[in-house]
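A quick aside before the break. I want you to see a complete sequence-to-structure record at least once, exactly as it would be stored in a machine-readable document. Don't worry about memorizing anything.
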Amino acid sequence: MVLSSESYYYFYYYYYYYYYYYYYYYYYYYYYYYYYYYYYYYYYYYYYYYYYYYYYYYYYYYYYY
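That is the input. The structure line, written in tokens, reads:
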């Protein structure tokens, strides 16, 4: 009977262990994906802004000179 209760204990121990393991793995994956998406969006926005900045810069340059 003692062996059965110990098996029951280890079963729940490993069950919760893998449950939290996959939970944190999923959370880390979701956070990484969100961070990558945010970085990509920021990079795209910065590139877009930079492009228009130089576009207007050359536009005014050729306009006044």
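Two observations worth writing down. The chain has one helix and no strands. The mean pLDDT is 85. We'll return to this after the break.
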